[in-house]
Amino acid sequence: MRTKIALITGGYTAEAEVSLKSAEFVGRQLDASRYDVYPVVIAPDGWFHPAENGEKYPVNRENFTLSVAGHTIRFDVAFIMVHGSPGEDGRLQGYLDLIGLPYTSCDTLTSALTMNKAYTKAVLNGIPELHLAKSVQLFDAQRSEATALLSGLALPYFVKPNAGGSSIGMSKVTASDQLEAAVEKAFNAANTGRQVIVEEFVEGREFSVGIYRRAGELVVLPVTEVITDREFFDFEAKYSPGLTKEVTPADLSPEQRERVEQIVKAIYLRLNCKGMVRVDFFLHRGTDRFYFIEINTIPGQTAQSFIPQQVRAAGMKESAFYGELIEQALKAAADVA
Question: Could you tell me which residues come within 8 angstroms of residue 177 by beta carbon, excluding any fewer than 6 positions away?
């Protein structure tokens, strides 16, 4: 009997389009001899399985089953590929916990915490060799007070939604007269919460590194360096071909590689992560310190995305990598039972 996989995609934010592309790529890589894969789209107007015949079969949300051609399909595990809400903020994981369906990502608490950049930084504070840019968290009621609240920060700084992804709603502020527009842009970014984080700019090289658990061991994938001629790695730079250069494995010294691997492992453990996650850093030019940018608990999975690049650089096939994530989720569920 092949394992039945619910490949969950879509979502309620502007990242839904990227989620669909990630799920399409993952679905193509999964071993058809081992897995029966059913894409399940989460959309504002409903949850459904888009069948090859064009039919949209609704999900029974009482137990997350499908009724197809008179047969009830019950899933063994969910492979979550929803960037943004409800897949990356813990809401979907909480639902799956309630119905008892294992899944491949971080749990409810970790997902909810890491979706909040300011709270994540507070938890990570104190990890050896990990540095955190000075920042201020703004709530909706504090919009008019932003200038005063940021008086302790030095320009330039980044302004971004505190619970957003893919750099949506993000701005770099180099002069005080740009602040109001940047804060409004971040607050008004669709479906990213009503909080904003403002961080001092860290001048340096940008890196991204994936990590996952394999048979009880933490495995850090080869690091990717992101090089762009744009002012920063924004949404357009991330998803428009030719605007960035990505080097995997990155040109780091043996000491820098060892240091960042230890930092990433410490982050994974401190946040109680599960499955694959991706951590982004700046390497400060003046001090050679690694500064935390963010953690992504549902990283993009197109052919050009960082994690697949790193998997290939590690000498692995994506099909084997995704299979490990599925088997690890099933084993974890069996251990709990």
Answer: none
